[in-house]
Amino acid sequence: MGKEMVRAAVQVAPRKIEIREFPKPTIGPDDGLMRVEANGICGSDVETYKGHLPPMGAAERAPFIPGHEPIGIIEEVGEQAAARWGVAPGDRVALEVIVPCRACHDCLTGRYQACRNRRYGHGVTGVHVAPSLWGGFAEYLYISPTSVVHRIDKTLPAEVAVMFNPLGAGVRWAVHLGEVGLGDTVVVLGAGQRGLASVIAARAAGAGTIIVTGLASDAHKLALAREFGADHTLVVDGPDGVNTVEAVREITDGAMADVVLELTPMAAAPVTDALLSARHGGRVVLAGLKGGRQIPLNTDLIINRALRVVGAFGVDARGYAEAIALIESGRIPLEKLHTHTFGLDDTALAIETLAGEVPGEQPVHVSIHPNGS
Ligand SMILES: [Zn+2]
Ligand SMILES: [Zn+2]
């Protein structure tokens, strides 16, 4: 009898994704297999698709299965793994991208994202590494003995449950790193899915005034920002574009913001806007990657305003766990963020849709459902 085969979308070159089949892995006592229900897509998938970000480690451009925001059902799990993760077949789980060693100094002190022994990652490891099925754009995904597994309510719609990932970013960036507290004025620069998630998290944490910036082409996202609790939305480009810093000054009556999140991709000017929008002693969280470019930075401003400037690297287990609790509370109409569902065969189209390359589409949250929705 032949081995059961698993279909997966493999990125073989920039802008080239093809469906390939791999043998369904044999599971031992210490690992598991997930039947993938949904996998969210984010800006880093777009950059990787275009060939801008090489997948972590590994031979550059080695074919790999993308998809680092997966949720799914435990199909098979070894006895030891089941006990360690607290799961049984049929449970729904979300996986983190990082597969740490769980034994080095960084792992033991809670900085597992800095683990120097990590050799694999979900959605980044090449298919040449057994058993190939590391990414979420596949019917099944291999769960490694040290994968980071979060349980999540099975009764939620898959496209809502899979928002554990962007919402985790909102929780970590706004609340844990930005330390948004009761009554704080929060400015979010950038209205993508993580900007909207930051609005949701800041609102849940008791923020006072929330101000969100976006481009004229982000009108639908800014409308969502208002629905999720933003008090003011600013369009900062085009003929009617406003000056972010002046608008924040006016709205806050000169007090400026307690917390500013800079989430815009590639643009340099918003970093200065972020510093200038914060009050004396305020917090500025930087999470918008600039493609490795040097950008001008007025360090005197940071000193004279006694700013705390923090870099946001991804999301950690606490951020994901709190995001999952927020989703499971059912108090937030997250389905309003979900705009597009695609099957495995349309992986490239899904990424191009999120990238804004498909005329007429207004994407916010896009996910791939490899086994149908
Ligand atoms: Zn992502
Ligand atoms: Zn480690």
Description:
The protein is of the alpha/beta class. It folds into two domains: 5-151 and 333-368, Quinone Oxidoreductase, Chain A, domain 1 (Alpha-Beta Complex); 169-311, Medium-chain alcohol dehydrogenases, catalytic domain (Quinone Oxidoreductase, Chain A, domain 1, Alpha-Beta Complex). Helices cover 27% and strands 24% of the residues. It has helices at 43-50, 79-85, 105-108, 158-161, 164-177, 193-204, 219-227, 244-251, 269-277, 299-304, 317-328, 347-354; strands at residues 5-13, 16-23, 32-40, 70-77, 92-95, 98-99, 120-121, 140-143, 149-151, 186-189, 210-214, 232-235, 257-262, 278-286, 308-311, 338-342, 365-368. Strands 3, 4, 5, 8, 9, 16 and 17 form a seven-stranded mixed beta sheet that branches. It has a six-stranded parallel beta sheet with strand order 12-11-10-13-14-15, sandwiched between helices. Strands 1-2 form a two-stranded antiparallel ribbon. Strand 13, helix 9 (269-277) and strand 14 (278-286) form a beta-alpha-beta unit. Helix 1 (43-50) crosses helix 12 (347-354), helix 5 (164-177) packs across helix 11 (317-328) and helix 8 packs parallel to helix 9. It is globular, with a radius of gyration of 21 Å. The mean pLDDT is 95. One zinc ion is lined by residues 100-101, 103-104, 106-107, 115, 117.
